[in-house]
Amino acid sequence: MNDEQRFEENKLQFCSQGLENIGAKRNVKPRSDVTWLTIVVDEDFAVPALVLGHSIQTVSEGTRKALQSVGWDTRLVEEMDCEWLDAKVGGETQQWDDCWFSDQIANYQQEIMNLWRETTIKDTCPDDQVLLWHYYAAAGKWKALPFSFNIRLIIYRPLNSYHFAGGPRYHPPKPWSAKCRPSRMEASDFDRPILVVDDMVLIFWKNFYELLLKYNLEDWWRSTKLFRPDQQFGGVPYAGCIS
């Protein structure tokens, strides 16, 4: 299935489920001042979450001002206090100040998972992000806040070639689950412009290897199932592995 067919498939799903929810079930007026954010954390996604956090820390003050100049609102969020979280004295979302938002809605995973059968049309089984789109479609034109490693193809096209969204039939595998990886030396030496998808993979591992040193996470990394010493310290070029 190519990208054009995938777009048409998404449109059909939106029409069948989204319009039903908006018009018949909930009758909610469209809004443009709301957003939704999903955070899924497990062993496999710890790696990209670390890369994202490390990358955000490297954004300079000059870059923040440049983003603000075109309308983006950048906020510095304090680190979360784990002891305070364990005490369970906060609400569902302790990551941000409540005064930043007019409303917050928290939903548990089972309620969303129950939609899977409803959104299945013929032989099409929606992935997690498509399912969430159906869930939040009833609230109107909500703005998504996707992780950079999980960009929705339907929103950020034609940048799908530079991201790792969707399954292997539509996109390259995610860097941490792909069979090929650059060595630490090759990733560290990468300093050229990003021109193809494989360059994004090199950038991903360049950032990850840097954060292992910066945050003293080498022992943790070596204890995980994702650690592959033969690739990380070997001499086979990344291009040679994927060809």
Question: How is this structure best described in words?
Answer:
InterPro entries: Nucleotide-diphossugar_trans (IPR029044). The chain has helices at 3-26, 43-57, 61-69, 82-86, 109-113, 116-119, 128-137, 184-189, 197-214, 218-223, 229-232, 238-242; strands at 35-36, 143-144. 46% of the residues lie in helices and 2% in strands. The chain has 12 helices and 2 strands. The chain is mainly alpha-helical. The chain has a two-stranded parallel ribbon with strand order 1-2. The radius of gyration is 20 Å and the shape is globular. The model is unreliable at 21-25, 89-94 and 146-168 (pLDDT under 50).
Sum this structure up briefly.
InterPro entries: Nucleotide-diphossugar_trans. The protein is mainly α.
Give, in order, the helices and strands: HEHHHHHHEHHHHH
Label the overall shape. globular
Oligomer: single chain
Main beta sheet, described? Answer: 2 strands, parallel
Unreliable parts: 21-25, 89-94, 146-168
The overall pLDDT average reads 68
Cα end-to-end separation: 22 Å
Percent of residues in beta strands: under 5%
- SSE class: mainly alpha
> Which value, in Å, is the CA radius of gyration?
20 Å
Report strand order across the widest sheet. 1-2
Jot down its keywords.
single chain; 243 residues; mainly alpha; two-stranded parallel ribbon; 46% helix; Nucleotide-diphossugar_trans
